[in-house]
Amino acid sequence: MIKLGDFKADDDVQGKVTRIGVAGAFLDVGAEVEGFVHISRLLPRSNRVEDVLTVGQEVELWVNKVDPATERLELTMIRPIRLKWSQIKPGMKAEGAVTRLEKFGAFVDIGAERDGLVHVSEMSDGYVRDPANVARVGDQVEVAVLEVDRGKRQIRLTMNLPPDEYMEDDEEQEELPTAMEIALRQAMDSPSSESLAPEDSKSADKRKIIQDELLDRTLSDRVETSTESRTKED
């Protein structure tokens, strides 16, 4: 048995309808007392509780208000607001449930005070004749905010999400080796003097001298190039 003091506003609870009245319905949520959901807090909206709930039905609700002193537990079927208007910014990504479909698009609940609208042109990167071909009521979809009008309390959304990762323009690219470096690598990859036969020892010594000269010239070329670049920048 859950104590009333353990409930907090906006808590997600599961309830089973026990009684239905004109003003609302009573539900068993495992607490000391039954919770009550007012007809104004039913979904979908209706003037008759019987059109939404039936005795024995199990539903998901949220705590609207709890008062241990009066032993009252008020519930709601309307999801609490998770996003304030000041928190909704263009470009922000969110996940929400499709709540309504119209010819011009789909409405999506992203946890704000009002559902956002995904215009039919923003439901796919191709032509969409009917929004029902892309989404259905109840579907969980990924969206991004296009525009927020706090005055009109409107949120424009899109389902055409950009890639999560982009190639940086200034991303460092691997520097291509110079002709001198290629020659040096080829020389370094040749068989070492230890693997040569005794009669080839002179050739090995000569190869080592060539390698050392290539290395010296490569390092010298690097220094000169670096110096020239700094001079041009200055």
Could you characterize the architecture of this molecule?
The chain folds into three domains: 4-76, Nucleic acid-binding proteins (OB fold (Dihydrolipoamide Acetyltransferase, E2P)); 85-158, Beta Barrel (OB fold (Dihydrolipoamide Acetyltransferase, E2P)); 179-228. The protein has a five-stranded mixed beta barrel. Strands 6-7-8-10-9 form a five-stranded mixed β-barrel. The protein has 234 residues and is α+β, with helices and mostly antiparallel strands. It has two helices and ten strands; from the N terminus they run ββββββββββαα. The longest helix is centred in the C-terminal third of the chain and has 33 residues, at 201-233.
Please provide a brief summary of the model.
By secondary structure, this protein is of the alpha+beta class. The chain has helices at 179-189, 201-233; strands at 12-20, 24-28, 35-38, 58-67, 72-76, 93-102, 105-109, 116-119, 140-149, 154-158.
Defining traits:
2 helices, 5-stranded mixed beta barrel, 3 domains, 5-stranded mixed β-barrel, 234 residues, OB fold (Dihydrolipoamide Acetyltransferase, E2P), alpha+beta
Helix-strand layout with pairing:
Blueprint: E1 12-20, E2 24-28, E3 35-38, E4 58-67, E5 72-76, E6 93-102, E7 105-109, E8 116-119, E9 140-149, E10 154-158, H1 179-189, H2 201-233
Parallel strand pairs: 3-5, 8-10
Antiparallel strand pairs: 1-2, 1-4, 2-3, 4-5, 6-7, 6-9, 7-8, 9-10
Helix pairs in contact: 1-2
H/E element order: EEEEEEEEEEHH
Number of helices: 2
Number of strands: 10
Enumerate the strands of the largest sheet in spatial order, edge to edge or round the barrel: 1-2-3-5-4
Provide the gyration radius in Å.
Answer: 35 Å
CATH C-level label of the largest domain: Mainly Beta
Tell me which CATH architecture of the largest domain applies here: Beta Barrel
Distance between the termini: 77 Å
Look at the structure and name the CATH superfamily of the largest domain. Answer: Nucleic acid-binding proteins
Q: Helicity range of the residues?
A: 10-25%
Give the DSSP E fraction (strand runs of 2 or more residues): 25-35%
Shape: elongated
CATH fold-level label of the largest domain:
OB fold (Dihydrolipoamide Acetyltransferase, E2P)
Largest sheet: 5 strands, mixed, barrel
Structural class: alpha+beta
Mean pLDDT: 82
Write down the domain tally.
3
| Regions with little confidence, pLDDT below 50 for 5+ residues | 165-173, 192-197
